[in-house]
Design goal:
This protein is α/β, with parallel strands linked by helices. 38% of the residues lie in helices and 9% in strands. Helix 10 packs across helix 11. It starts with 8 loop residues before the first helix and ends in a 21-residue tail after the last helix. The mean pLDDT is 87.
């Protein structure tokens, strides 16, 4: 048998075709020269979930669907056709208070999927499929993510920094440092060069004895705390998730930089109300973002936080590359879902990007933020959030947020309403006593 070999696209198509013919995992393995466990793992890892009905029948996964005689759950009926029974409507499962989901027993044992099932044409339950093309695409994405970035935590990087940077400042080369401190470093010389090049150490390229003599290679720098952070959290996954959970509101998060290497803002934008919060951070790392989310989670309490920010949408910056720490609290309870926009696609969170134009009226691009405190930033955001918007029916984000969630939450967030005639969108507010 072929061991330690990745499955090819052709082999995946063979798996899909043999599943349609009701081959067992052992039979598929014999055809491909693979172990049956390999086939089992491949299928379970790449299952595609679909909520579809059968020919002439909508999706309905209710346990009581065959004997149900409920009528007119919606008043007036929201369906295009006025059905005699609600069980024939695609909205039935989401509207009925007595809904209990039925799970297909086939999904709990091999082959775990609906490929080759005889009842497929009449089944209205949730379906599980194995599709070769989608499985191969997902495999390639996971492979690419696993080979990008640096697999070190921030605490490990700080530990390496305390060991390596002082020696670099003494004029030592990284080769010399590695040769004499390998037991303490436990990473390769090339990894140290990348860490210095990514500006993750106190020492910089200019401090290396010979590095500045060479022309830098042209490649995109990519540092992520979790290299697989985008798996299952892409913008396409976000769109699918929102279709399944239309009741959830979206909160967009982004960073606003001033001078490179200085303080930076984290903005949290509530799309429905267009209210934006901003927090000053000393550096643009993932830990500072986690600290802000933890602070909000503590101040708002669990139920309010989950109601306000059930979904967080960010870009691909390294400061958002530790989604697990954002999604779960210290007791491993889920508090939100994190998703990422596509690379170089700021329009996918255009509401936050547009609101950043107000911040640039106070802090122009390239201007240092080092002199600003959180008190200054809160004052700036109070003026911005009190500014009336035509898109909100000439109401301010503060007023709309207050209407949706209440004044008490705004106070917990540190927001204050500025009278309409006193709103100032100029940096002169920082000079007022």
């Amino acid at each position: 048998m072929a061991k330690h070999k990745h499955l090819t696209l052709e082999e995946r198509f063979t798996i899909a075709n043999l599943l349609d013919k009701n081959y067992s995992f052992k039979g598929i393995g014999n055809e491909l020269g693979k172990n049956c466990t390999t086939i089992s793992k491949e299928i379970r890892k790449h299952i595609v979930f679909k909520k579809t009905g059968a020919y002439g029948r909508p999706f309905n996964a209710c346990l009581h669907r065959s004997s149900c005689d409920v009528r007119m759950l919606c008043s007036p009926c929201s369906s295009r056709r006025k059905y005699s029974f609600c069980k024939f409507c695609k909205l039935c499962n989401s509207k009925c208070p007595d809904f209990e989901q039925e799970f297909c027993k086939r999904h709990n044992k091999p082959p775990y999927v609906c490929n080759g099932c005889e009842k497929l044409k009449s089944c209205t339950l949730e379906k599980h499929f194995y599709h070769a093309a989608e499985a191969h695409t997902e495999y390639r994405e996971v492979l690419a993510e696993s080979r990008s970035g640096i697999s070190l935590s921030e605490s490990e990087i700080k530990h390496l920094d305390t060991l390596v940077s002082p020696l670099i400042m003494r004029g030592q080369s990284l080769n010399h440092i590695c040769a004499n401190n390998m037991d303490s470093l436990m990473v390769s010389e090339s990894t140290l060069y990348r860490l210095v090049d990514y500006n993750l150490f106190s020492a910089r390229n200019i401090d290396l004895p010979r590095k500045v003599r060479y022309k830098p290679r042209k490649y995109k720098k990519n540092f992520k705390v979790d290299k697989g952070c985008r798996i299952g959290r892409t913008f396409e996954d976000f769109q699918k998730f929102m279709k399944e959970h239309p009741q959830f509101s979206v909160t967009e998060m982004d960073s606003v930089e001033g001078k490179k290497g200085g303080k930076v803002l984290l903005t949290i934008h509530f799309v429905k109300s267009e209210l934006m919060l901003a927090f000053i951070r000393n550096s643009n790392d993932s830990q500072s973002v986690i600290d802000v989310i933890e602070k909000l989670y503590f101040e708002l309490k669990q139920d309010v936080f989950m109601a306000l920010m059930p979904v967080l949408l960010g870009d691909n910056g390294s400061e958002f590359s530790n989604p697990t720490a954002l999604e779960f609290d210290c007791q491993k309870n889920r508090r939100t879902y994190v998703f990422y926009c596509d690379p170089s696609s700021p329009y996918q969170k255009g509401s936050a990007e547009k609101n950043h134009e107000f911040i640039r009226l106070f802090i122009p691009k390239g201007e240092s933020m080092d002199a600003f405190t959180q008190k200054n930033i809160t004052l700036m955001m109070n003026h911005i959030n009190s500014y009336s918007r035509e898109s909100l029916g000439n109401k301010s984000p503060y007023e709309v947020f207050s209407f949706l969630y209440g004044e008490d939450i705004l106070k917990r967030l540190g927001c204050t309403m500025i009278p309409a005639n006193e709103v100032t969108l100029k940096p002169s507010i920082f000079r007022k006593k």
